[in-house]
Design goal:
Elements lengths: L2 E3 L6 E3 L2 E3 L9 H13 L4 E3 L8 H10 L7 E6 L15 H15 L4 E6 L8 H14 L2 E7 L3 H14 L4 E7 L11 H8 L2 E5 L30 H17 L3 H10 L7 E5 L4 H8 L8 H11 L11 H6 L16
Parallel strand pairs: 3-4, 3-10, 4-5, 5-6, 6-7, 7-8, 8-9, 9-10
Antiparallel strand pairs: 1-2
Length: 340
């Protein structure tokens, strides 16, 4: 396991993050603890939960599992989702909601500080100024060390980061988005923004909600259990699964391991950290083994060919030829070396 810097900070986080959304629901406390131990043995130190996962059970299990070695862990949790559907102030990103959420999370997690505190989803009713300033207050209080934002449009994230930079407030260090071979739409706006603003990208659902586990393909019967029991994958999804299964078989590794390895290979788009959510210790062992190999150029091309998306305007607007004409090839720009 290697470690990456979290955005424009010196915080070192493991190149794979353990997602704890299923703790207390799909995984029992005993199974969850075994998963945490296996992740720790592999060198993992980055664990992600939220105040509403399992209505608080996930935080309790995580807190108990890491209590004996708390300071080694980079502990991340979230707020914004409602804790009481009948109370208009029980959710949202405003100060009152945040104040209630942080103290409850600290108690459940058995700690006096959160390493990375996420805005779980954008709250359109709370001004961006209030979000940025209240998060800065939390950092100054010592309850939170760094802040991040999840599932929010690029223009809002960039506005918040710019505001924080201009006012000398705590800026977002990381972005959390869904990203996988079957979900590449974040490459249009969110990943270029993250690269430009130096935000680490933590990618949830790296296995496409179960599609990229090897159980799906145009030549395979659809599983009768799980979330896809009453849903039909698209033709595009199945073709992506076919390509993944083909490359995985040639490599002699599981499809899920290969899907995570593909995400690790996207560092030219942004600093990308897969969030791996598993139900068993065996799945954890398979997931962390994705760090043991890199995909070669032909494998990456095969997967890209099957899964690439149309960027749409302005991503596919050919401005270079109109701006530079024949002189384009004479310009060496060090800022474009990361590419897309």
């Amino acid at each position: 396991m290697r470690y990456r810097l979290l955005g424009r900070t010196g915080l070192r986080v493991s190149e794979i993050c353990l997602g704890a959304m299923t703790f207390g629901s799909a995984s029992t406390p005993e199974q969850a603890t075994a998963i945490v131990r296996r992740f720790e043995e592999a060198g993992g130190n980055f664990i992600d939960t939220a105040n509403r996962y399992g209505t608080g059970k996930s935080e309790r299990i995580v807190g108990e599992a890491i209590a004996s070695n708390r300071d080694r862990w980079v502990l991340a949790t979230k707020y914004t989702l409602t804790s009481d559907a009948g109370d208009p102030n029980a959710g949202g990103s405003h100060r009152k909601s945040q104040h209630r959420a942080i103290d409850a999370s600290l108690k459940r997690l058995q700690t006096d500080y959160i390493d990375v505190y996420w805005v779980h989803i954008w709250d359109p009713h709370t001004p961006v100024e209030e979000v940025v300033m209240s998060l800065d207050d939390l950092v100054r209080s010592g309850k939170v060390l760094y802040v991040g934002i999840s599932d929010t449009p690029a223009w809002l994230v960039s506005r918040a980061v710019t505001m924080a930079d201009e006012r000398g407030l705590q800026r977002f260090s990381a972005l959390q988005v869904p990203y996988s071979l079957v979900r590449r739409d974040v490459e249009r706006e969110l990943l270029p923004m993250a690269r430009a603003l130096d935000l680490a990208v933590t990618a949830w659902a790296p296995l496409g909600g179960g599609l990229l586990t090897g159980r799906f393909g145009s030549d395979r019967d659809r599983p009768a259990d799980g979330r896809w029991a009453d849903r039909t994958p698209s033709e595009r999804d199945l073709l992506i699964c076919d390509a993944l299964n083909e490359v995985a078989a040639a490599r002699g590794v599981s499809a899920s391991r290969l899907a995570i390895a593909w995400l690790r290979a996207q560092q030219h788009r942004a600093v990308t950290i897969p969030i791996v959510g598993v139900r068993t210790e065996a799945q954890m062992t398979d997931a962390v083994s994705a760090v043991e190999f890199d995909l070669d150029a032909s494998e990456l091309e095969r997967l890209d060919e099957a899964s690439r998306i149309e960027l749409g305007f302005p991503g596919d607007f050919d401005a270079d030829s109109m701006v530079h004409g024949d002189a384009l090839g004479l310009i060496d720009d060090h800022r474009t070396t990361m590419g897309s």
